[in-house]
Amino acid sequence: MMLRTNMVVLWLQVRFPLMALAILMFAIGVGELLYLAGWRHAALTAWALSMLPIAFSLYRMRHRSRLWYGALELLISLTAFYFVLLGIIEVAKPMTMELVVGRMLIFFVAIYFMVRALDNIRQGLGSPLAGRWDSFFGIGEKSGAAV
């Protein structure tokens, strides 16, 4: 029984990313066919469900390597922040309250993901580097208040 369980685990470790990619491509293709057939809500559902393999793969990556997951998360949040700023600079739209609030929301979401990314990077570091990381950010130092 134990050998069978180990074989299943090994099979999932090797093939899971490829299976996730195949499921993603299939779901996107099904969504495209549904969209072309005029079933827009069904297509949106298929496309939304196609994001699950990506989420599963990223979740797996987060548990296997917090350092790389944090670096990817930081890169994605910086990229999102860059494109929001690019849209502000290049698109001359009148500033409405909805536009300002929408952009502020994206800024705060990007900053939130940057903080999460830094935390994941910290958790992925080994002990000697984690101490340097903590001292760089002033974490764990007593500053007169109870920590």
Classification by helices and strands: mainly alpha
Proportion of helical residues = over 70%
Radius of gyration, in Å, reads 21 Å
Number of helical segments with 4 or more residues:
6
Order of helices and strands: HHHHHH
Q: What is the number of E strands?
A: 0
Give the total of domains: 2
Largest sheet: none
The coarse silhouette is: flat
Overall description:
This protein is an all-alpha fold and 147 residues long. The chain folds into two domains: 1-60; 65-137. The chain has six helices and no strands. Helix 3 crosses helix 4 (66-90). The longest helix is centred in the first third of the chain and has 35 residues, at 2-36. The model has no long low-confidence stretch (mean pLDDT 78).
Features:
147 residues, mainly alpha
Topology summary:
Blueprint: H1 2-36, H2 40-49, H3 51-64, H4 66-90, H5 97-124, H6 127-137
Quick recap of the structure?
The chain is mainly α and 147 residues long.
